[in-house]
Amino acid sequence: MRGRVSTGTAAEAYEDLHVRSAGALAAALVGRQSEPLPSLAVLAEASDAAWDRARTEPDAHAPTWTRYRVEPYEVEFFQGDARRRHIRLRYTRTGADGWDRELLWP
Question: Residues with Cβ < 8 Å from 14, sequence gap 6 or more?
Fold first, then answer.
């Protein structure tokens, strides 16, 4: 998918997170995605604490959770084939409500 990406508001991010599972909240409460991890034990400790907090504070705020919005101008779908004759379809926006469809070589 290709398109313009924008960030939602803090209120939209909060609402988005809180319609998800307790696991999503727990993961968001850990909030250190892509930082170096000293050990799996540190992850286990942080995860346990986040799960406990998610259970006791289901409305907890997770400041790292962000909601993004994509306004697509192009979307491609790929369907694999056992003989490697993959089906590829590309849709390109032609206006406010229209899309062109192309079949692509694998």
Answer: 61, 65
